[in-house]
Amino acid sequence: MGIGAMDSCGRCMKVSLIAINILIFISGGVALGMGTWVWVSRSFSTTLMSNNMFIASVGVVLVSGAAMMLLAVLGCCGAAKEVKCMLLTYYILMFIIFVVALVGGILQFVFREKVHSTLDREMFAAIPYYGVKHEYTRAWDDTQTFLQCCGVRSHNDWNDNVPDSCCKEVYPGKRLDCKSSPNPTTMYTDGCLEKTISFLRENAVSVGVTAIVTTIVMLLALIFSCALFVKIE
In the Cβ-directed half-sphere of 59, how many Cα atoms lie within 13 Å? Predict the structure, then answer.
């Protein structure tokens, strides 16, 4: 059956597949953007945590988003030109990305439930490396500045070695003197543990929901591409 000879059902599948792939392209862009943002702001989560499930799952979602955008173009071309070889290639690759994205989304929710069990121990273990190893020093400074917190549970975790990043910022590069007079007006008094957990859980939910919703759209694409493949002779 050639182009123009396809029945109304086949034409409907063709148009639907093109529309779904446009939606997949947009969804892939959203997943890519969100994954990139979380990846860029990951300093404390990669260094202060020995469990890298969160970053691994973000990486999965990020790569899946980029792959989805490329596959959406292939899917549109295959549907528009009614080329069975392109549709078959599209179906196989989309199925692989579907499974990968689904796993990435599930890992985010698993991480959300497990983050509290090990994070406090890992953060306490990272304190002695402050000022000794650059990556730990930067991670602590980034965490305390970004989340406006100090220490794991409080500034007392630092003993007599309170970092400058515990002092409140007046503006970027200028901080109050909190070492000579530590008090709530000059120092961040909240511990970083609970703030870090809240931050990671919020990101895990956002990325996880994005991944799950995207896989639902991809499932529709798989169904329509398979149906269109059968319709084309």
Answer: 7
